[in-house]
């Protein structure tokens, strides 16, 4: 039984996390929000208050924090008496926040893999390069650390575990499909931090095929599926966190991730990439100023949080799983459909932030209740999926399944 | 009679100017090259020596200069005993170099209009905002200043003057067509300083139509012409320097400038512009660094000078002039075709730099000889075109004409 949550980060996902924690503060206790910019924390608190999201009267505080500073992070964990830390800040701070949790005993949750600013697309499996190097230490210290517990990675890992546990005797392939069929009405924008977004696509595309790491380039391999609600959609094989844990934790020969892109997105991306504007390596201007092009691209693009008020349409994210059950070939699609407008009305964020921000709160509730307080470092597929997906059914991200019996809601 | 030339700037155009000055140093005397980077000056000198471009033994020196510093520029003019200054540096330095010339009595030549870094596309006619404010002072001091004496502006202004003097009683329209049908083999590059290049296209497109300034947006108005050598070409109405002097100096109701662009160029430009990456106004990165996006784009694009070795194909630049002669409607196209490979073989630069760099040297020779040493500030159309075009016929940029009598070389 743990309580009191420290949320690190103050972007669109943090806003969802704050609202959802507030909606469950009877279980989660005090809430603290920390980021480099205390103003952004206070804006989130104002939004939580405006929407009356707190279930019961409780503490909700803002804090300025450089989360790369382990000592400062430890001090804040202790000052706020937080036993659960939800890290939804930049992907560059994972290892320092994790270290602070290990040293204070707080449970650690994040939604994306650690990255170093000057490195892109390192050797697979990516978790081996950073987080998993602390696995033994977490076990020794009895620290609960749940890695990648957003939607993808996160919920899709739970879908994979559910498929493996309930629907298949053996699995041939897991293809994770992520389609955003929404429209933000701007010339171009990314749905989360442009820096992290583009970094996903500029390196090699790693997939797990025939039990081997396979490398492709972005937009080299595509597929088209007829998906529930959003219809026929083309997606492209993309490097993504969950491939790097599912391939190691499940006995599945093929794990691939596919993301949907429109032609306009691909054109803009291609121009920027070919010009070198998505590079994480600094260039020097004629005036002698050293600058990372990708950071300038980020600076000119819309703040993803600013898209929320006018975002319409739906997302569809799920796992196409193929394998055998009772000697028969079988295929299921386990998925969620979320609506941008509904998300905005509930928590003031768009659907992409919503799908990423609700799951870590569900996980925090499971830690608070004890179900998932496992005293070690795990990826989501290593945990029982039912309590998690059951909570998400109630919290706004219901699970559905499409198989030979049709398309229906899944209850747990 | 003036002699000794100071070349300011050390880019691709300066390289052409240096070679061409060297080829005529019997008339022009000592040559000095100055830029912020003395290394680039020395590379040009090495190229001049490598190709044995000096006609007679003579001085050729390099100098580090911040040309925004009027006193330093005056000192260098005096130190090098230069009576002619060819300014082919950035468009931001025109006014300070001009001031240094006025205060030392040196003749001033440039190839592009003055610009302020933080302003784009000011009120027409552009020359009124900067250079022409020194017109009276030049006259009082007897200083020769020939503005915009590259190819366009420059040679095309002489073509317009020639048409007005020789081929028409009255002119209805001058349409200046600039087509680069060459290929550099790179994903994307600009043919001269990307910063200046893009600034031409991000503001309003000013044209002179029915004796009024008319505003359009870039790529809004296009035309297609069947041109000599390069064939059928689509060009787009573009704001350009020469429209701003020809409209004031010639009695012509319509003066327009048209530049050729391929679909790929337009796509890249459109993406960059719509994202805000061509802005001359600084943005602030998440890390707090203030940076001008356009300068970062410039930093990632190929150095235009680096395109020269692999550049193939031809340019076609000229004036389509329509009007009346002896009571008859008449149309002529006065033009030049230049070859990228020929330019590289002669002076180590590509064709765009060649067409821009040869004309100011021809003008310098005319000043040295006295023909164009007019002791006042003028644009090229205010000078007799024949000696200029005659020299260019010998110097590598021959003039041709296409009219009702066919397509032929023009001799002067």
Automatic annotation (TrEMBL), chains A, B:
Keywords: Oxidoreductase. GO terms for molecular function: oxidoreductase activity. Residues 5-146 form the Saccharopine dehydrogenase NADP binding domain. Signal peptide: none annotated. It is an enzyme of class 1 (oxidoreductase). It holds the Pfam family Sacchrp_dh_C. Its EC number is 1.1.1.-. Residues 150-397 form the Saccharopine dehydrogenase-like C-terminal domain. It comes from the Bacteria. This is Putative Carboxynorspermidine dehydrogenase. It comes from Nitrincola lacisaponensis.
């Amino acid at each position: 039984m743990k309580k009191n949550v420290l949320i690190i980060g103050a972007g669109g996902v943090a806003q969802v996390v704050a609202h959802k924690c507030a909606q469950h503060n009877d279980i989660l206790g005090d809430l603290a929000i920390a980021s480099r910019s205390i103003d952004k924390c206070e804006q989130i608190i104002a939004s939580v208050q405006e929407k009356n999201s707190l279930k019961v009267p409780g503490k909700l505080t803002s804090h300025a924090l450089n989360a790369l500073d382990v000592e400062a992070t430890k001090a804040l964990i202790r000052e706020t008496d937080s036993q659960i830390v939800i890290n939804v800040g930049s992907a560059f701070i994972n290892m320092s926040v994790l270290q602070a949790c290990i040293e204070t005993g707080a449970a650690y949750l994040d939604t994306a893999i650690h990255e170093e600013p000057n490195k892109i697309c390192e050797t697979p499996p990516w978790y081996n390069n950073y987080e998993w190097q602390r696995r033994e230490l977490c076990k020794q210290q009895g620290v609960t650390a749940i890695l990648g517990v957003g939607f993808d990675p996160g919920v899709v890992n739970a879908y994979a575990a559910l498929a493996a546990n309930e629907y298949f005797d053996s699995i041939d392939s897991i293809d994770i499909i992520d389609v955003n069929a929404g429209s933000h009405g701007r010339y171009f924008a990314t749905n989360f931090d442009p820096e992290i977004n583009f970094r996903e696509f500029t390196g090699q595309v790693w997939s797990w095929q025939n039990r081997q790491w396979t490398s492709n380039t972005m937009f080299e391999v595509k597929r088209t599926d007829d998906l529930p609600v959003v219809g026929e959609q083309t997606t492209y094989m993309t490097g993504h966190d969950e491939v790097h844990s599912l391939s190691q934790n499940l006995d599945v020969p093929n794990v691939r991730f596919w993301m949907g892109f429109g032609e306009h997105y691909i054109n803009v991306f291609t121009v920027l990439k070919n010009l070198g504007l998505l590079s994480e390596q600094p260039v020097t201007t004629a005036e002698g100023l050293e600058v990372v092009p990708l950071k300038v691209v980020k600076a000119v693009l819309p703040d993803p949080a600013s898209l929320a008020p006018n975002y319409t349409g739906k997302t569809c994210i799920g796992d196409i799983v193929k394998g055998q059950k009772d000697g028969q070939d079988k295929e299921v699609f386990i998925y969620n459909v979320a609506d941008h407008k509904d998300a905005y009305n509930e928590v003031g964020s768009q659907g992409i932030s919503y799908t990423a921000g609700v799951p870590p709160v569900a996980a925090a509730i499971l830690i608070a209740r004890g179900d998932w307080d496992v005293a070690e470092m795990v990826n989501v597929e290593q945990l029982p999926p039912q309590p998690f997906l059951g909570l998400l059914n109630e919290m706004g991200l219901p699970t559905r399944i499409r198989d030979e019996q049709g398309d229906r809601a899944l209850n747990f």
